[in-house]
Amino acid sequence: MSRRYLRSNAFKYSYSEAGYPERPQDIVTFRCTRNPSGTQASAQHFFQSSNFCGIMRTISGAQLAEHKSRQSCWLAVHGKVYDVTGFINDHPGGAGLLLKSAGKDATSAYQSIHNPELISETLPQQALLGEVDTSTIPVEQQESDVASIGQQEAQSEYPALSSIINVDDFEQVAQRYLSPEGWAYYSSSAEDETSKQDNARLFRMLKLRPRVLRDVRAITTSTKILGSDSSVPFFICPTGLAKYAHAKAELNLASAAGAENVHQIIPTSPSMSLEQITEARSSPIQTQYLQVYVNRDKEKALSLIRRAEKAGVKGLFITVDSPVLGKREKDDRLKALSLGSSAPNAGVAKIASSTLLNPGLKWQDLDWIRSATKLPLVVKGVQTVEDAVLAYKHGLDAIYLSNHGGRSQDTAQAPILTLLEIRKHAPELIKNKKIEIYVDGNIRRGTDVIKCLALGATAVGIGRPCLYSMTGGYGEEGVKHMISILKSELLVNMGLIGATSIDELVPAMINTMRAEMEVFGGVKL
After folding, report:
1. Of 67, 246, 404, 481, which residue is the catalytic one?
2. Which residues of the chain have pLDDT under 70?
3. What is the Cα–Cα distance from 263 to 254, expressed in whole angstroms?
4. Sequence ranges of the domains in the chain
5. Among this protein's residues, is 246 annotated catalytic?
6. Catalytic residue among 244, 293, 438, 474
7. Which fold, 162-323+358-516?
8. Catalytic site includes residue 400
9. Domain 5-136's class?
10. Digit-coded pLDDT (tens) for 107-141
11. What is this structure's pTM?
12. Is 67 in the active site?
């Protein structure tokens, strides 16, 4: 074999220095940066991660096909081959989905659900094995599992959109439309799902105290969120794996939000790129934010912030309520079926392998983010008055009361209860409007919105209903209809309670006595 050289600005590197490949088909292409020392690189220095940009070998379809088991699972995505063996137990959709594509070109199945960037951001660098020789992969008919990826058009079995009269109606359609994996992912909550149930229960404990004989002929639901106008005091929450609901996923949400002048929070790991979603704005005044799980690598975290700034988002929602992954048993049961009885319990390994979550995140890291950007910062996932006060002291622009829809820690108190806790122990945050406060957690009715606003919230977040409203083939029109339903209920109930604007919704309109019995009294600030 002749010597082959890679010429770099600082050195030239030959195969003989690293050893010849054992087989001709394993000849690799080296891509590297300048050697910092300016001298010829040794093999050891060359392979250090700080200087290494990638080793790419060409892998044939036959080689790829050899690795299609749980013990050795390779798949090709966008021309690159990945070893996902160590990720099988952690895959949110279960091992079965990965094994179904094992040893094959999985690009079609992958992009039907995920953002193209996600695989490189999630898997470790060593999982990338090389480039696949696409000419050696047999052309196979793609399976049409349309129900699992939400691409089917509305059919006669799904009700006409006009017959959907409340937000919960969308959930009933979604349960029939979604694949078992999609339904489990969207609907699941942690362990016994007590927190998810409490989110709804606490709203039922709050009673309205309507005022009468008030002129309510002209009612407006408009408000400002982080200084930007919104037609309604609610926004679209960040949600993952939106392509289970519809192929256009976040594009539907972006377009509908712009048409209705509703603010949207883009998730950290959307089904498509951040730039695609921001370019889908349908209005020049449209407001979008970005949810941020702060990466353990500060350079990567900073890179995401710069991308967000360039894309024109108006604020960052730093998610802090999931330092580790909660135990969602609907998900786990489906995964167990696909893994089989011999599969090990991922346990702590599952937590450690997650690149999205950052168990080391501290308040000081938020100070660092504050120094790195001029964008408004919101801390998402506050669950106690103590942390609400800390958020104010650390200069955050808003606090977002949330228990992650009950998906993280079971029996964590409902966000509306945290709002009552703030009213009791740190009322100055609300009375003096020192900081904006957002609330989510099973908000399904206009009356739920009114209760939050009257008790001091600036706005509320809508999560699962945004996903459910896209199913059944409804897409963007479904999202618009869901927004219209909630806005209509808000208008009607503002009139019934005697308020013509958001500012006229006051605490005296809400009877909180039953719920206040559950407010924690041992707070020390």
Report:
1. 404
2. 1-55, 89-97, 111-112, 116, 121, 139-156, 335, 338-355
3. 9
4. 5-136, 162-323+358-516
5. no
6. 293
7. TIM Barrel (3.20.20)
8. no
9. alpha beta
10. 777 766 777 677 776 777 888 888 888 888 876 53
11. 0.79
12. no
